[in-house]
Amino acid sequence: MALLRYTALRVALFVVTAIVVWFAGVRPLVLCALVAVLLSGLISVVVLRGARTRVKAPTAGRASTSETSAGETFADEDSAGKGAAGDEQASATPRAQARSPRPGLLRRFNERIDAMAAKEDAADDALRAAREKE
Q: What is the pLDDT along the chain (134 residues), one digit of tens a residue?
């Protein structure tokens, strides 16, 4: 609902700005619309700040949660990678366990990507172990 309100406010601001620009003497319709788009965009940055934060509020929690879980996942992967080389559990990513199930084709595609990433991680770990032995 907040997105609909914000969009309506942006459109209303554009229409009001276009009318003001038209009465200011900018007569070619294309030029009037272009000037109105630019001016209403600049004005909306200041005037519609509160409405924009209400639109972003529901998604901000999800974004910070996903960033936190991603950071934890990478930290878990780093600590798991410090184990013995060739350890099956060290190459398994916690990301696969934390991921929500995805329907059909997309889930299979992501599983393939995860499997390829796990193989690449295992190869990198083996190469790192070989370099450390030298």
A: 889 999 999 999 999 999 999 999 999 999 999 999 999 999 999 999 999 989 888 777 666 555 555 555 555 555 555 544 444 444 445 554 555 554 667 777 788 888 999 999 999 999 899 888 87
Which residues 6+ apart lie within 8 Å of 101 measured at CB?
107
Helix-strand-coil percent breakdown of the chain, rounded to 5?
85, 0, 15
Q: Tell me if 55 sits within 8 A of 1, measured CB to CB.
A: no
Whole-angstrom Cα Rg for the chain: 26
Token pair listed for 48: 């519609």
Sequence-ordered strand ranges (E) for 17-75:
none
Q: Give me the torsion for CA of 64, 92, 97, 105, rounded to 10°.
A: 100
**Structure tokens, 2:** 């907040």
Within 8 A by CB and 6+ apart from 5, the residues are 51, 54
